[in-house]
Every structure is written in structure tokens, then in C-alpha cells.
Amino acid sequence: MIRAPLSTTAVLDESVDAVRMTATPWAGLLILASLPYRFLQVVFFDRVLDLGSNAGQYGDVLRTTAYWTAAAFVLSRCGRAVFARACRLAIARGERPGAEALRVPLAALLGYIFVASLTELVTYMTFFTFIGLIAAAMVSGLAIGTMELNDQTGVRAPLRLIARYGRSGRILGALILVFLIAIIVAAINVWAAFEVGSWLVSSIGSFDAPRWTILLSGGNRRYSLMILAGAALAVEPFWVAANVVLVRKAGAQETGDDLRAWFEELQRAS
């Protein structure tokens, strides 16, 4: 049911409800599918930064890590696709979906993986530019939001859908700002959880406190990257759900379904 007109607050409210209805087991499946990719992504970035200008001399090591990272990326996007379908079913029915959430159409899945690969490439290429990252995040969000609307094979169909719903760019930009703040807050919470855990286990006699103090410190680059990866994992279910809700509400607004749903609610209330 379309409960409110298209707006940033309405999208956020309904996305929270969608995550609540799909938390078990579909949000857990999303996190499990994304976990290897986030871990390998951190390892790859850390190795590249550690090697610096000498990275070209260690092509075999980086290539092997890149292959595993690419495989984990496909797995993570399959998990996203299943969770996005689960969110759409939950929003439409008002209840947690069953095993039908796994039946993602093959054309939609392949089209989404193609677009997600392009946006990931753009993200890496524009990593140190702000505008490039924002644009890539917008396209990535619309790609998962429009995934199930794509019933055609080919590379143009998913891009046409993204262009069609790109007219909601103002709201999508506001969502990116909200989720950027959410990642910062999540990173602080993940860091605090590690600090509390380190403090609790420090009472164990065999625990090497000085060594772990060095490893779990801001001076350890890999630890800092892992904190960011953990924050991204925590926010990801809400990000996917928000884009599914955004596309659904934007489509309802185009077809007039939101007005019909609003009229039916008024009739029931009276």
C-alpha cells in the first residue's frame, strides 16, 4: 500500500518498516552475502595503499585478490537482489515474504549485476572526487530499486529504467545525505563496540592487551577500513529498502496508484 505521497521522510519511514518485516531472514542473508566482499575490499585497498607506487611490481598478488573480490562482489549483488525483492513483497503484502523472495527473475538479476559493475567501476575511478561518488551512488541506488521492473535481456533496458526514475534525483540526493550521516554514526557505534569488547576481554589472563591495543587503534589502517566496512554493512539493508520504496512510490505517482490508494483509505476511514 502507498501510505504517503513521495517525499524523503515518507521513503525513510516505509523503508524502516520494510527492513523490520524482512529482518529475519532476508536482511541477515543480505549481510552474510555482503560480508566477504566488504572484507576482501578492505584487504585489496589496504594492500594497494601499502604498496603505493610499487603496486605495479606485485601484479600477481593484487590480481589474485582482485579475482576473489570480484567473485564476492557478484555474490553480494545477488544477496542485494534477493533482499530487494523481499522488501518489495513485504511492502505490497504488509507481511514478511517467504521463499518466493528467492525467485528473482534472471533477466532482472543479470541486468542489475551489469549496471552494478559499471557503477562500482565508476566509484573506483572517481574515489577521490565528491561529485563522481555521489553520481555513482545515485545510479547504484536506482539500479537496485528498478531491478525487478526490468523484464528484458540486454544492456539498454536497465539503463532506460534508471534514466526514467532519475527524475526523482532531488529525493535521492537527500537520501544519500541521510545515509552518509548514518554511516558516520554507524562507524562510531562499531568502533565503540570494538572498544567495549577489547576492554571486556582485557581481564582474561592470556589476552595480549598491548598487542591488541596496537591492532585496534586508529593508527592501524586496516582496522579503520574494517570499521567503515562494518558501518556500510549495518546501513546497507536500509539503503536497499529505501531505494525500493523510492522507485515504487515514484512509479505509483506516475500511474496515479497513489491517488487511488489514498481515496480507498479515505473510504475505509469513513
| Low-pLDDT residue spans | 255-266
Distance between the termini: 18 Å
Counting DSSP H or I runs of 4 or more residues, the number of helices is 9
Secondary-structure class: mainly alpha
Number of domains: 1
Envelope shape: globular
Major β-sheet annotation: none
The helix/strand series, from N terminus to C terminus, equals HHHHHHHHH
Structure description:
With 270 residues, the chain is mostly helical. The chain has one domain. It is 79% helix and 0% strand. The protein is built from 9 helices and no strands. The protein has helices at residues 8-51, 59-93, 106-125, 130-145, 156-165, 169-201, 209-215, 221-255, 257-269. Helix 1 (8-51) runs antiparallel to helix 2 (59-93). The longest helix has 44 residues, at 8-51. The two termini are 18 Å apart. Residues 255-266 have low confidence and may be disordered.
